[in-house]
Structures are given as C-alpha cells and as structure tokens.
Amino acid sequence: MTTDHEDGDINPFLPTVHPLKIFDAAKSQGRFLYACAPMVRYSKLAFRQTVYHYGTDLCWTPMVLAKEFNRNQVARDSDLTISSSGPQPHTIVQFGSNSPTELSHASSLAAPWVSGVDLNCGCPQSWACAETLGAALMEKRELVRDMVVETRSRLEADGWDVGKEKHVDSLKGRSVSVKIRVHKDLRKTMDFITTVIGNPHNRNVDWLTIHPRTRSTPSTSPINLEALSILTEKFGPQLPILVSGDVFTLATLPYTSHLLDSLPIFTSKAADTTPSTKPYIPKLAGLMSARALLANPALFAGHETCPWEAVDVFLNKVARAPLPLKLAVHHINEMCGPGYGPDKRALLSKKERMKLNECGSWIDVLDYLDEVRKEKDGGGNGMRRYA
Questions:
Q1: Rounded to an integer, what is the distance from CA 54 to the centroid of its chain?
Q2: What residue stretches are annotated with the DUS-like FMN-binding domain (predicted)?
C-alpha cells in the first residue's frame, strides 16, 4: 500500500467513517448515495480523488486479486494506493477471490487503509470466470456466503467493528459487501442473495450492489429494469442496495424514485420529460457509475457534460498521486470527449484528442492543453494551474 505523502506519517488520514453512516447521511439528505464503480486500470487514487471532489460518496478500487495481494508486496503497493495529504476518499477495496482463507487474509491486510471490502461476483471476463472468479461465483452461492462470513469473522478478530448498524458510529467501523450480476432465471438470483445475506436480522453483508445484466449481456444492452425492481422490492427492506449500470446522467436515469426529486441538475435541456413511462423503484439506496464517471467525473455534482474545471482538478490530483503518462492521457481524452448522456458537447474535437494522444511528455500535454484552451477562450491566458 503506497501513499502520496512523503513523511510516512499516515495515521491521521486512516478511514474513520463507517460506510453505512454515509448511506444514512445520503438518506437523511433525501438523495441517493453516489458511488464510483471498480474499473480495471482506471479506479486509481487520482481519479478517485477527482470524483470525490465532485460529490461521489464511495469509491471502489479496481478489482484486486486476493491471492496475489496476500503474497506480493509489489502487488499491495501497486494495487492499493491511499492518500495522506488532504481528504482521503471513502474507499472500498474490491477483491477477486474464490477462497474464504485468501479473501479474509487480504481483507485483514487492507482493512487499516480502507473503509470496507467488497467481493467481486460480477466480472464477466472469460479469464476471471475460468478461474472461478467474478460472475462465475454467481453459481457458487454457498461459497460466497462462506467467504463473507469468514472475512467478517477475521476482521472482528483483528479488532475492527463489523457489527453493521450496531457500529455505524464507530471510528473503527468496516464494511463487507458483494457486487453481483443477475441470472436469466431470476429465482436463482433471489436464492443467491438469500443465501449470502443469511439471517436478515444479523446479515452477513452490509449492502449489496446489483448490476442487472446477466454474465453474457453486453454493456450496450439496457439493464434489466424488471429484475432490478423485483430484487429491490424483495431485499431493499433488509439492506441498502446500489444499482450499477446505465447511470449516464442524473437527468436521464431509466427509473424514477422519490430520491430523484431534489437532484442537482446544472443543465436541463437534455432532461427526460416522460417520467411516467419509467418504473418507480422506491427501495433503491444508491447509484454506481463506471463509464459515465470516466467521461464526466462531475456527474454526481449535476453536470451533464464534463466541465474544464474537472480536467484541472484531475491534473492537480495526478501531480500529487502520479499515474503513467499514457493512462493519464487516456483519462483526459475520456473527459474531453462526448459523454454518455444525450448532450454530446465535447471539450475537445476528435482531431484535437488525437493530437493529445501524440504527446510524449507531461510538458507536451500541459503545453498542448494550454494552447487549445487559449484558442477556445479567444486568446486568453490559458490554464497552467497545476501544482
């Protein structure tokens, strides 16, 4: 585990807020909890800090292989980077595992640095499923139950408070959660969730994230709203439920809820005007976004497209929590292109983004962005606001 602080004194910045308290805070404000999904390569510290700056409540790391995390210090240092200079985003580390022993041990190693641990039961990639990871675990409900039970027991033995609502105010509170997909036969999904939750009065997980697509459903297909409605109606009273998928803008969600009444919307011309055609899903607690946040880190602040200010924030974060140049340029390209909502305005044209990709150093990147923005500002002073 590495930090972006040089003196090694990171204790004042360790997580002290239980994630369930963040759920409660969002509910008391009459809104959804906002979450940044685990994204391979992209959910690194600088990006998590950027979306946190714009109101994202919980940030997931990319999926970390528990077995490698346990055995390799290099893997720990590269896979889990935390902040010790400024606000630490409320971070959930997501593990890929098929072993109660491996998952519980990895969770024990990570617990001092994160707010909670999450088991990936949703990744559909063939390599993961071949290793009985990700979505393959949707066929192993008893194994998933055993993994979360052993993980909670290990964290408790280590001295962490894992009593869910009982420990919501504890400075040492830590959460255990699961992210899932759905089956074609929804009865199998209900059996899976019932098994993993266990006793609803003393459940095994703090909350559940549902991606309402099957393992074989492409991301270009709409989420299964009927499945989402049925599952949240049945299990929403037992524990908080996040939805992952098709959260492209706050104005164009494919469902309605009483928690949508006071959403921050900075531009309204793209807002959906036919809410009566959407299912009403009242027991949904939060929204998790992946691709749309990548293109617009300010999504949960109500921006329908990415503002230049978000690019500035990201570059300042990268200056303190460095990323490989090509990865950071990819982030900038995503932010400067058209987003996933109906408003397709872009900060840079396709030609300008292609030229950005040709930059071979940070000096080239910053000089080019200065030059383009100066032109777009009509010959202004450019930006050069990075520390």
A1: 13
A2: 36-251
First to last CA, the chain: 24
Rg value, the chain, Cα: 21
Low-confidence ranges of the chain (pLDDT < 50): 5-10, 268-271, 273, 275, 387
**What is the H or E stretch that residue 82 is in?**
strand 81-82
In this structure, are 58 and 200 located in the same domain? yes
Whether 66 and 105 have beta carbons less than 8 Å apart is answered as yes
Residue range 60-81, pLDDT digits in tens: 999 999 999 999 888 888 889 8
Cα(140)–Cα(64) distance, rounded to whole angstroms?
Answer: 20
For 200-210, what is each residue's pLDDT tens digit? 999 999 999 99
* Spatial separation of the C-alpha atoms in residues 336 and 267, rounded to whole Å: 18
> What is the crossing angle of helices 100-110 and 141-157, to 10°?
40
Residues 272 and 327 placed together within one structural domain of the fold: no
Tell me the pLDDT tens digit for each residue of 89-104: 999 999 999 999 999 9
Determine if residue 177 is left, alpha or beta; phi over 0 gives left, psi from -120 to 50 gives alpha, anything else beta.
beta
Same domain, 144 and 237: yes
Burial status of residue 19 (CB atoms within 10 A of its CB: 0-12, 13-18, 19 or more): buried
pTM (whole model) above 0.85 = yes
CB neighbours of 85 closer than 8 A, spacing ≥ 6?
Answer: 4, 5, 13, 320
Among 36, 59, 121, 123, which one carries the catalytic annotation? Answer: 123
Question: Cβ contacts of residue 24 below 8 Å, gap of 6+?
Answer: 168
- Total residue count of the chain as it appears in this document: 387
Structure tokens belonging to residue 80: 């889990």
d(CA 296, CA 241): 23
Asked if 96 and 242 sit in the same domain, the reply is yes
281: closest CA among 216, 339, 204, 223? Answer: 223
Q: Report the pLDDT value the prediction gives residue 140, as an integer from 0 to 100.
A: 98
Range of the domain at 128: 2-308
Query: Which letter does DSSP use for residue 309 in this model?
Result: H
Q: Based on the number of CB atoms within 10 Å of its own CB, is 299 exposed (0-12), middle (13-18) or buried (19 or more)?
A: buried
Token duo for residue 24: 């409660």
The answer to whether 123 is a known catalytic residue is: yes
